[in-house]
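Milestone M4 deliverable, item 7.
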Amino acid sequence: MVSSLVGVAISVSLLPPIVNAGMLLMIAIVGESFVPNPPFYNPPQLYLYAARSFFLFIVNIVCVYIAGIIIFKVKAVRDSLRST
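Output delivered:
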């Protein structure tokens, strides 16, 4: 039960920013060809928003990695592949 909850928490923190970045990039690249003169279409601004979302994704990955290292240190989990 706990392991599935951890997986859901990680996916909830990682998926929305990367999906948002991809959608913004696609709207910036091909948005005008699908919707003529959309009111929100400003490619430089959309590229900036996509970059911010991608940066948030990278920050989330780094934070999940650091939290994992800290938890393993606190719980005293040893590397089972390391030869003793």
